[in-house]
Amino acid sequence: MTPIFKDSYGNEVCVGDTIIIEAHYSFQHMKGKEYIVTWDEKHGMYKHKITEVRRGKSFTSEDNFYGVARFKKVE
Predict the structure, then answer these.
(1) Could you point out which of 24, 25, 31, 44 has its C-alpha 20 to 30 Å from the C-alpha of 8?
(2) Where exactly are the structural domains of the chain?
C-alpha cells in the first residue's frame, strides 16, 4: 500500500497499519493503546480505530488524528 504520512519517528504509515498513541493533547486515556489507521471517505480524513473488550462486551471507537501529539507505527 502507498504510505500516507509518517509517524513521530519518520516511519511511513499506510491505511491498515497499527499505531500506538504515545501522547495526546486532550485525551490521556488514549495513550499506550494500539489503533488501526483507517480512511473515512465520506469526510475525507484519516482516523484511528480501536476495538476493546470491557466487561465481556466488545466496543469499537474511531476518532480522527486531531489532538494526537506523538505516535509510533507498530512493526
Answers:
(1) 44
(2) 5-73
pLDDT band at 3 (very low <50, low <70, confident <90, very high): confident
Interatomic CA distance for residues 11 and 14, integer angstroms: 10
Residue that has been written with the C-alpha cell 469526510 in this structure: 43
- Determine the pLDDT at residue 68: 96
20 contacts 71 by C-beta, under 8 angstroms: yes
Average pLDDT, the chain: 94
**Cell for 13?**
504509515
Dump strand ranges (E) for the chain.
5-6, 12-13, 18-24, 34-40, 45-54, 57-64, 68-73
The CATH number of the structural domain formed by 5-73 is: 2.30.30
